[in-house]
Specification:
Elements (H helix, E strand, L loop, with lengths): L11 H20 L1 H11 L4 H4 L1 H24 L1 H24 L3 H28 L6 H27 L13 H31 L1 H7 L17 H29 L8 H25 L5 H21 L2 H15 L2 H12 L4 H10 L3 H14 L9 H18 L16
Helix pairs in contact: 1-6, 1-7, 1-8, 1-9, 2-7, 2-10, 4-5, 4-6, 4-16, 5-6, 5-8, 6-7, 7-11, 10-11, 10-13, 10-14, 10-15, 10-16, 10-17, 11-13, 12-13, 12-14, 12-17
Length: 427
């Protein structure tokens, strides 16, 4: 999937700039789930478990669509696959107003699944494309650069999303839930997704105008795919898939419940809109940590750095479960900083140690992102059975402790010499 020589293809720099905008776009779209959960929970009068189905609908798409997406990529090629992905996202966004007009929450879940299916195809196409748009030697640097923009999108998303979704209507100061206030909040949800549809239409037009540059720059790189089933022959591929499952589930659980957690009377007791905006600090910490982590990895073994970060995240989650007020609030937010290097590092360490074909291992690891659908649902059950949201953090606490074991095992096992590692830019 990358150039076989060490020289950048003609036009690769400009094409890379075009493709990097896609990382920002899907980071932005994914992070909107956080304020959306807070909005739908009140507008549709849902339990925490029911509201968490927003994340389940989104991340189930990774398990269902990763393999078909690879087939679409192989048939259409890079630029057309990216445009098809963007069109799918637009289609999903347009389902949301239909669902709110008929006042049907499952319709919102269907829309999120369709949007996430487009995002899955976007990732399947964009990750190897970034590796292909330049020399093989610098592929890691390009992927890390693209990951930064993915985190930037995830940081901006909750801030803008909370401003639109969690103001006015049922969220206005002193407001009660009436048909009028619900209608106002439902229209805010419509506006958010119609605006996102417009954004992705512009992205599609942007990529369409650059399609020839992208195809020329990526010429010579092979679009390969292999069934994730082939990875079941490798214990390390299976171990890595479990780690990705746990990590994504833990990260998403915290982000998903963060708005309502910070809003809680025993934590910060602030308006829901302000709490939603503060979620940007959680994702922003991951962005900053990614930059620092990239530098540290030139001096510290990846497995050791992963062990430190997972242990720190576990400690912070423990602090959240045992405290309240600002201490619990900022401990929860700080977890984002230590999440920063986990996904690409787990991915890379697994690819280095797996005895299965790299494409099959990568496919299994991408499928394991479905952990973002399962752990938040479990956390929702915990939340509904508890008086406060602090116990929710027992779910990621257990997850990070298991990831410490993965990091320790990786530090004790050597990777395959010459293994080509190209971890995706975010989930």
């Amino acid at each position: 999937m990358s150039q076989t020589d060490t020289t950048a293809p003609k036009g690769g720099g400009l094409a890379f700039a075009y493709v990097t905008t896609l990382f920002f776009a899907w980071g932005f779209a994914t992070s909107l789930i956080d304020p959306l959960m807070a909005a739908t929970r009140r507008v549709f009068d849902l339990t925490n478990t029911e509201a968490a189905l927003a994340a389940s609908a989104w991340f189930i798409a990774y398990a269902v669509m990763s393999v078909p997406a690879a087939g679409v990529l192989g048939k259409l090629g890079y630029s057309r696959a990216v445009i098809a992905a963007l069109a799918t996202i637009v289609g999903g966004c347009l389902i949301v107003p239909v669902a709110t007009i008929v006042d049907w929450y499952p319709g919102v879940l269907i829309a999120l699944f369709v949007i996430a299916s487009g995002v899955t195809l976007l990732q399947v196409a964009a990750n190897p494309l970034v590796a292909a748009l330049g020399s093989k030697k610098s592929s890691h640097a390009r992927l890390n650069f693209s990951q930064f923009f993915n985190s930037l999108g995830a940081t901006i998303g909750p801030f803008l999303g909370s401003t639109i979704l969690l103001t006015g209507g049922v969220f206005a100061a002193g407001a009660v839930v009436t048909e009028a206030t619900r209608a106002e909040s439902l229209r805010a949800i419509d506006f958010a997704f119609l605006a996102m549809a417009g954004f992705f239409v512009l992205m599609a037009l942007f990529i369409f105008t650059a399609r020839k540059k992208i195809d020329v720059a990526a010429a010579g790189s092979n679009v390969e795919s292999a069934s994730p089933l082939k990875a079941f022959s490798s214990k390390w591929a299976m171990f890595g898939a479990l780690a990705i499952f746990i990590y994504v589930g833990s990260e998403v659980t915290i982000g998903l419940f963060m708005t309502n957690f910070l809003h809680s009377a025993n934590i910060l007791d602030i308006p829901l809109e302000d709490a939603g905006r503060m979620v940007s600090l959680y994702w922003g910490g991951a962005m900053v940590g990614r930059l620092i982590g990239s530098g540290l990895m030139t001096r510290v073994p990846a497995a050791v750095l992963l062990a430190v970060c997972t242990a720190a995240a576990a400690i912070l989650c423990a602090v959240v479960t045992l405290t309240a007020g600002p201490t619990a609030a900022y401990a929860a937010i700080a977890v984002g900083f230590f999440n920063s290097i986990m996904f690409p590092t787990i991915f890379s360490l697994t690819l280095e140690r797996s005895s299965a074909p790299a494409s099959a291992t990568s496919g299994l690891l991408c499928t394991a992102i479905v952990g973002g659908a399962v752990l938040p649902w479990i956390a929702g059950q915990v939340a509904d059975a508890s008086a406060t949201l602090n116990p929710v953090f027992y779910v990621p606490l257990a997850g990070y402790l298991l990831l410490v074991l993965f990091a320790f095992a990786a530090s004790r096992t050597k990777g395959q010499e010459g293994a080509v590692v190209a971890a995706p830019g975010g989930h």
